[in-house]
Design a protein that fits this description.
mainly alpha, Methane Monooxygenase Hydroxylase, Chain G, domain 1, two-stranded antiparallel sheet, 21 helices, 1% strand
């Protein structure tokens, strides 16, 4: 191949690979935005039955087309105490199976699927005024584009089938399976998608461009890389979450390395699992994850112990770094920089409130003086930082400012007030309500407790979305946040009705906790409302907000 053709080839391959990765992400974000609340409930309600937890993880990964997304969710529930570490690991093992099933589904299609999926997806996305229907359209478009990207890869690689240099390089990878394994792991980690990486490797194999041995090694490497993605993304997460993720890395990565050694040093025929080389690799990937899960389920507890040994809690306060305020006085001379400093400090407030909201759920279930004191202490810190931000912005406003900068300063001050109100609701209202449960020695009914926990998790997810909106200033996500505010209001009303129904039935626990139950729902809704206001300045600029409500049906800037 001459130089212009080589450049053109790499351009086509890079474009196709980029489309593939983006398409997988498109499907995942569509599912997350449309059904994330249901998936979160599904995962959180996973019982201590390891098989059920595994099945839940499998189903969630198939829907999300990402075991990483499931891993992040599950690890969050573990750190919050909603599920145990053992259940969390079982969910992740199931998610690995789900991810393998997705690949098997996506490589088999009929020619009519692409135009059909595109037609349905675009019609739903452009014509529907319902948020979830629009996101369903997004999902269908994403699946269609996955198929298109795979066809692009096939077309782009066809000329290389007769190129001696390319064939020699691929043959070398076939002989050096360790190198191929490392490339597979590194590539999947780089693109943050093991599904996308494996689809690419299998497509190259189907074109006759890559030897089966290299494809197998790279797919096994992608299993290690896929587990490492979640590990990298949770490096700053609570230690309980990291234990779950590391356990999956140990199991999945260790099994991948062991399988590579077996296939390297033993002549193992794969003809019994597929008629073609492509089918054999796909089925090997699926079998690998199924067998790994079945073998790993009985030893999850031991694996968790190893992870806990490798990642130990740093409890020595003397070694902890004292946090330094981001409110840099020297930045006041540069208004744009000063606003960034104030925003960073607001993010810190939001993160503190997130931690308080996680803790308050625990004392509702079991009162703990130390935990309650921790919440109160954090509230005092929030109030202190709140005052510092207001003082900082007041000093900024003494300068001659552009109108847009002054408006931004006013908006940040308003957000500060809202976040402080959310913190106060947790520290004063919810802690007091939890204390009453303990003092009066009463408990919610089973149904009532489940409703409170589910509603709490919904608010926590929206709080996290609000923090993301603060950081990215993304109008699409801001619209999602406002839409969630309305959904939460409707949900609160539905939960009140369910509670009243239990009162009419004379359920003793519901009667005893009636006031606390309703006040808790109201407090959680107030917290959600406070954080939803983060989106108001963004949507005011885009013209999507009128009188604190969306100006019309939710519109995404792009699918």
């Amino acid at each position: 191949m001459n130089e212009p053709l080589i450049i053109l080839f790499f351009l086509h391959i890079a474009g196709a690979a980029a489309l593939l990765i983006w398409s997988v992400r498109l499907v995942r974000t569509g599912v997350e935005r449309a059904f994330s609340n249901y998936l979160r409930l599904l995962l959180r309600r996973s019982s201590n039955n390891r098989l059920l937890a595994m099945a839940t993880g499998t189903a969630s990964a198939v829907l999300l087309q990402s075991s990483t997304a499931v891993a992040i969710m599950a690890s969050g529930f573990v750190s919050a105490g909603s599920i145990t570490t053992v259940v969390g690991i079982a969910i992740l093992l199931g998610a690995d199976i789900g991810s393998a099933l997705v690949i098997k589904i996506l490589v088999v299609r009929q020619n009519f699927l692409v135009p059909l999926l595109l037609l349905l997806g675009i019609v739903l996305f452009l014509r529907s005024h319902k948020r979830r229907v629009r996101h369903l359209g997004r999902i269908l478009i994403g699946i269609a584009l996955i198929f298109v990207s795979l066809d692009m890869i096939r077309t782009a690689t066809t000329p290389l089938m007769d190129d001696p240099a390319t064939l020699a390089m691929m043959a070398f990878l076939g002989q050096d399976m360790l190198l191929a394994f490392i490339i597979g792991a590194g590539f999947s980690l780089l693109v943050h998608s093991s599904v996308g990486a494996i689809l690419l490797f299998i497509t190259l194999l189907s074109q006759g461009l890559m030897p089966q041995s290299a494809s197998i090694a790279m797919v096994l490497g992608a299993n290690l890389g896929g587990a490492m993605i979640a590990y990298v993304l949770t490096l700053s997460a609570p230690i309980q979450a990291r234990h779950v993720i590391l356990s999956n890395v140990i199991l999945r990565g260790g099994a991948a390395c062991l399988t590579l050694l077996m296939l390297t040093y033993f002549d193992i025929s794969l003809t019994w699992i597929g008629g073609t080389e492509e089918a054999q690799v796909i089925n090997l990937h699926l079998l690998f994850n199924i067998i790994l899960t079945l073998l790993a389920l009985p030893i999850i507890t031991s694996t968790a112990s190893v992870a806990q040994f490798l990642i130990k809690s740093k409890s020595d306060p003397d070694t902890a770094l004292e946090r330094v305020s981001t409110l840099d006085p020297t930045a006041l001379k540069t208004p744009d920089r000063a606003l960034i400093c104030a925003t960073r400090e607001l993010m810190h407030i939001g993160e503190k409130i997130e931690g308080m909201l996680r803790l308050v759920d625990k004392i509702y279930k079991r009162w703990d003086d130390k935990t309650a004191k921790n919440i109160i202490t954090n509230d005092l810190q929030v109030r202190k930082i709140d005052f510092q931000i207001k003082l900082y912005l007041a000093k900024l406003n003494r300068n001659e400012l552009e109108d847009d900068v002054r408006q931004k300063s006013i908006e940040l001050s308003a957000v500060t007030v809202d976040l402080d109100a959310a913190s106060d609701t947790i520290a004063r209202n919810m802690v007091g309500l939890a204390k009453r449960l303990d003092t009066d020695d009463i408990r919610f009914s089973d149904a009532g407790q489940k409703e409170i926990s589910d509603f709490h998790d919904r608010i926590l997810a929206n709080l996290q979305l609000a923090l993301h909106v603060m950081m990215t200033q993304n109008p699409s996500e801001a619209r999602e946040l406002i839409a969630e505010k309305d959904d939460v209001r409707v949900l609160e009303q539905e939960l009140h009705k369910k509670h009243l129904s239990r009162l009419r039935d004379g359920l003793v626990e519901s009667i005893a906790t009636s006031n606390i139950h309703q006040e808790t729902l109201r407090a959680l809704k107030q917290i959600n409302t406070s954080f939803s206001k983060v989106a108001h300045p963004i949507l005011s600029e885009t013209g999507d907000l009128l009188e604190s409500r969306l100006a019309g049906p939710i519109k995404d800037s792009a699918p």
